[in-house]
Amino acid sequence: MPILSNHIQFPSIGYGTYNMPDRETALAVKNALLAGYRLIDGAAFYGNEKGVGEGIRESGIPREEILVTSKVWNRDRGYEKTLSAFQKTLSDLGLDYLDLYLIHWPANTKKYGASAIHENQETWRALEELYEKGLIRAIGVSNFLPHHIEEIGETAKILPMVDQLEIHPGWLQKEAVDYCQSHGILVEAWAPLGRMTMVGDETLISISRAHGKTPAQVSLRWEIQHGILPIPKSSHVERMKQNLSVFDFELSEEEMKALDNLPPMGGRCFDIDEMDL
Ligand SMILES: NC(=O)c1ccc[n+]([C@@H]2O[C@H](COP(=O)([O-])OP(=O)(O)OC[C@H]3O[C@@H](n4cnc5c(N)ncnc54)[C@H](OP(=O)(O)O)[C@@H]3O)[C@@H](O)[C@H]2O)c1
């Protein structure tokens, strides 16, 4: 199981909560926890943090056994705004600490010019302060490429412990993954199933058949064998369980390479430096 640079142990797989209305989220999170997930990935942007908190309470599972993630949204970047956004997230969740807080997206120079770097550094300074106060057990970033991490590193006291990136067969982001892993930063995969848009791929289908597994399970296994922590989302209990059942088979080196070498496909395959966020 992955261990962060500050020695906190994470499970090998987490549960995503994007694109679920608030009213459905409580039941989904409760079901996910009862199915065995212990890492819940959320964000202020998803608009359902009240539901996440309700689901946690309704599960009856002790708070300290669950790892809860949130992210500061783009309009809340900067030192003061991040501190306020964090308080709103805690209050919506009904919790008194978070296990992991991430900067959702870096400000990029295409949109913010020369001030982008300062903006990211100031957002990071707020996360460091919250971490030092004991309000967050681990801090990190999301969608940060190596150069964004280097830029916050110029003023940081603490380096990110996690980088959450879009990763699925057809979008490995190898350069960013290699950079993170060589700097002790745990990589989490968002859209680890590519939002199920690359499931018609012949390579993925034939590897799945060879193992008697689904393309979703093979995708998750491929990420885990790369040392990456996937956070699949499903509103269906059977799929939640299916996505956890990925520890009874192993992909060969050849199969791993075949999946590594798929052309860009599935999910969003964003060019982060070109985004208008
Ligand atoms: N940091 C970021 O910028 C960022 C961006 C996007 C997402 N995220 C996080 O990453 C999480 C996962 O990403 P995602 O939700 O975009 O995509 P995903 O997990 O790759 O795919 C979710 C989709 O796959 C379906 N699905 C799940 N398991 C399945 C299975 N075993 N068989 C068939 N279909 C299955 C789900 O449908 P059903 O629900 O109907 O089962 C849903 O439509 C999010 O929920 C969120 O927490 C982070």
Give a written overview of the molecule.
- Helices cover 42% and strands 11% of the residues.
- The protein has 277 residues and is an alpha/beta fold.
- It has a single domain, classed as Alpha-Beta Barrel (TIM Barrel).
- Helix 6 (146-153) links the parallel strand 5 (139-142) and strand 6.
- Helix 1 (22-35) crosses helix 10 and helix 8 packs across helix 9.
- Bound molecules: NADP nicotinamide-adenine-dinucleotide phosphate.
- NADP nicotinamide-adenine-dinucleotide phosphate is lined by residues 16-19, 41, 104, 142-143, 164, 190-196, 214, 216, 231-236, 239, 242-243.
Tags for this model:
alpha/beta, TIM Barrel, eight-stranded parallel sheet, 11% strand, binds NADP nicotinamide-adenine-dinucleotide phosphate
Question: Concise description?
Answer:
With 277 residues, this protein is an alpha/beta fold.
How many β strands by DSSP? 8
Cα-based radius of gyration, to the nearest Å = 18 Å
Total separate domains? 1
The average pLDDT value, as a whole number, equals: 97
How many helix segments? 11
Instruction: Provide the spatial order of strands within the biggest beta sheet.
Output: 1-2-3-4-5-6-7-8
CATH classification, class level:
Alpha Beta
Strand content bin: 5-15%
CATH architecture: Alpha-Beta Barrel
**Helicity range of the residues?**
40-55%
Rounded to the nearest angstrom, the distance between the terminal CA atoms is 33 Å
Going by CATH, what is the homologous superfamily? NADP-dependent oxidoreductase domain
Overall geometric form: globular
Helix and strand sequence: EHEHEHEHHEHEHEHHEHH
Give the structural class: alpha/beta
Unique bound compounds = NADP nicotinamide-adenine-dinucleotide phosphate
Oligomer: single chain
Q: And the CATH topology?
A: TIM Barrel
